[in-house]
Amino acid sequence: MIRFYHRCVLAGGGPVNSAVSPLIELRNRIVVNADVTIAETSFDQAKACFNEFLSREGVSNDLLWLFREDVVFQGDNILIRTPVPRENDQLAENCYELGRQRNFGVALHGFCLFQSYLCCYLILPEDDLDAQYLLMSSVGVKYSVVSNPRKARSIKRSVAVSDLGVDGFNTHIPSKLTLLPMYPVVGAG
């Protein structure tokens, strides 16, 4: 299960306190302020709110930003290609900025633990309909973390994906090349 938490920040950087949504029975925690948009929230402000959220959830807020090329899903195992490039922090910020420009919504998502880090990626919806399915909008940044993050293992960056028997689950994680996820092709198959 994934716990969701929506939170915006004021243009000056302070958190906005809003009432919790009635969706609480779905075990989603949601806070949205319609007066503030993603366009007014810098990546640094979004990370600060994400860290605050993670602290309240009791999860490590030492973040490791990952992209499709860094993660391999093999059955129930999550494998992280090491070493993780230092450029990932800047790529994550670039991805966030792309999400702001596209104006469909942006989410910061924590999905597993690796060493002392919470592994994270950004979620960018394909279009407005996809944003609706993901409970996202241009109103505020969405923050989420899996309830019980699994521990990831390390593999050498040089190991070929074809040698691992990968299930392809990482298509929702943005690529370093496009900063976008691999959206499904309509009418394919």
Question: What this model shows, in words?
Answer:
It is built from three helices and eight strands; from the N terminus they run E-H-E-E-E-H-E-E-H-E-E. It is of the alpha/beta class. The N terminus is likely disordered. The strands form two sheets. The protein has a five-stranded mixed β-sheet with strand order 1-7-5-6-2. A three-stranded mixed β-sheet has the order 3-4-8, with no helix packed on it. The relative contact order is 0.21. It has one domain.
Please name the defining characteristics of this protein:
189 residues; 5-stranded mixed sheet; 3-stranded mixed sheet; disordered N terminus
Q: Write down the secondary-structure element order.
A: EHEEEHEEHEE
Number of helices: 3
Which percent band covers the strand fraction? 15-25%
Total count of strands: 8
Main sheet overview:
5 strands, mixed
Question: What Rg do the Cα atoms give?
Answer: 16 Å
Give the terminus-to-terminus CA distance: 30 Å
Q: How are the strands ordered across the major sheet?
A: 1-7-5-6-2
Give the helix level as a range of percent.
10-25%
Overall outline = globular
Number of domains: 1
Mean pLDDT: 77
- Secondary-structure class: alpha/beta
